[in-house]
Write the structure tokens for this entry.
Amino acid sequence: MTTPIIHYQVNKDISDGQLRPLYESVGWISYTDQLEDLSLLLSGSHLVISAWADNELVGLIRTIGDGVSIEYVQDLLVHPTYQHQGIGTTLLSRVKELSTQVRQFLLITDNSSDNQRTIEWYRQQGLVPVAEANIIALWRK
């Protein structure tokens, strides 16, 4: 079996039927259980870059922000079958390239013990914990 070529698109026009299998594949049930139409997530996003293998959505990054003072990575996900092929790196790199003039570029993830590999991967991509950036993140209780 040959590995399909991955194509990337900057496009918010992705249906719930295309998004739902991707979000379910990584276990993001807080999205899939609470929203009837996941495409609503994209309409309010600033940047959406997707990765496709043939007609299957296999990766996605979306940001919220104004593209000037702040760009916040809300979601970055790659279907488990396609992980470790550079798709996440490409998606994050493309968003960073499109955000070079943005003053604040943020991504928040949980600090659980089972997420440490992901945090290390983010560090390898040039992102640092807010404590190292001499800023503070505040959270609503």
